[in-house]
Amino acid sequence: MNKLLLSVLITAVVVGGGAFYGGMKYGQSTFSFSGRGNFGNLSAEDTQARFQQRGGATNGSGTGAPRMGGGMVLGEIISKDDKSITVSVKDGGSKIVFLSDSVLVNKSVVGSLGDLKVGDSVSVSGSANSDGSINAKSIQIQTK
């Protein structure tokens, strides 16, 4: 009886340990938008492209913007005025991004709206509008 109990216990530990290890390996191989998953060594543009290739959870606008109540766009600023920037995206389209005085602009040091220049590569996050534009909450200027 003790041998049967010991055999069952050892089998349970081995199966459980194997399942835990397999789950950890699976978790490392899947995409996690918030933590950049296994895309951590990619540029922002490559991350967006991979996210879209994998059929990322989009908001239905075809932009790769997540459904998490916000929008995201990665690309190059092609025009700018006091209230918005237009960002070209990898698929050849563009996104209008509305600006406010409260938008957080990041670069190696804290930036300002004045730091946004045509030709800059940017990562924008904010809330998506029904027309596909985005109200910016933060903008990261990408280094080249």
User: What is the count of distinct domains?
Assistant: 1
Report the CATH C-level class: Mainly Beta
CATH level 3 topology: OB fold (Dihydrolipoamide Acetyltransferase, E2P)
Main sheet: strand order: 1-2-3-6-5
User: Which structural class fits the helix and strand makeup?
Assistant: alpha/beta
Would you identify the CATH H-level superfamily? Copper binding periplasmic protein CusF
Q: How confident is the prediction overall: mean pLDDT?
A: 74
The helicity comes to 25-40%
Q: Order of helices and strands, N to C?
A: HHEEEEEE
Q: Please give the number of β-strands.
A: 6
Ranges with pLDDT <50 over ≥5 residues? 31-37, 55-69
Beta-strand residue fraction: 25-35%
Radius of gyration: 22 Å
Provide a count of the helices.
2
CATH architecture: Beta Barrel
Largest sheet entry: 5 strands, mixed, barrel
Structure description:
The structure is a single chain. This protein is α/β, with parallel strands linked by helices and 144 residues long. The protein has a single domain (37-141), classed as Beta Barrel (OB fold (Dihydrolipoamide Acetyltransferase, E2P)), CATH 2.40.50.320. Helices cover 26% and strands 27% of the residues. The chain contains 2 helices and 6 strands. It has a 5-stranded mixed beta barrel. The longest helix is centred in the first third of the chain and has 28 residues, at 2-29. It is rod-shaped and about 80 Å long.
